[in-house]
Amino acid sequence: MKAPRVTLDQWRTLQAVVDHGGFAQAAEATHRSQSSVSYTVARMQEQLGVPLLRIEGRKAVLTEAGEVLLRRSRQLVKQASQLEELAHHMEQGWEAEVRLVVDAAYPNARLVRALSAFMPQSRGCRVRLREEVLSGVEEVLLEGSADLAITTLDIQGYLGAGLCSVEFIAVAHPDHPLHRLQRQISFQDLESQLQVVIRDTGRTQPRNVGWLGAEQRWTVGSLSTATNFVSSGLGFAWLPRHLIERELKEGQLKPLPLEQGGSRHPSFYLYANKEKALGPASQILVELIKSFDSAPLDAPFAAPVSSV
Asked: What pTM was computed for the model?
């Protein structure tokens, strides 16, 4: 790759000339001599082979080529400043990236609010978000591929911070044979029907959480696929209420009138990788996740002003 002929300092000098209206004004603003500023711009034009400025009266005005190049240079200079700032933050212990793994059943709206509030405080720190199901979250945390994890599982040897609980309800299409019984449904009624379950993404010890031992079981890879199957009349399933509100309202899904166990309320927990200390960015994200987890979803939302 060919090395650039024009330096960032030269682009900054050109920007100063344009923004301040002339060479003398740019020299005063950048604490340099006017001859130094004039030479820098003249050298730029020579290196690029195109005129960037023309003089109209006492004012330096951009040429058409100068306008295009200056516009692109502003983004270049901004990115370079952000890169240097990020390096400074990393030197102070600020992470370049926070790796977060979340069970797919956790309410996405709460996560969006926490991450939206994190962005203006992130100082360039990226978030790598990964969705897993059941023991898949635990495996990612234990293998060291995550800094933070949100799951309903009690992970041995870890202390988790309590988060919200989510209601899972047993549902089927209104025309499903279970609804046509027009009575309370027993465990034996369920056993004879097709149950749709979500695949545990863990590899070492996947769990069959929620499966009742039905004669027919279809395993799907996501909650959205399970919702589509069941709302189309294929079997029954326990699904998070917050993910199926629209289907319930539009009549594509209907809660099953079970004698018992028609709804479940597993609680979520937030875990941190105990093999390494959390950096400042991770600590901020932890507090935001906990804060927005307990806030009502219908409450007005505004990302907090950075205090860092």
From this structure: 0.68
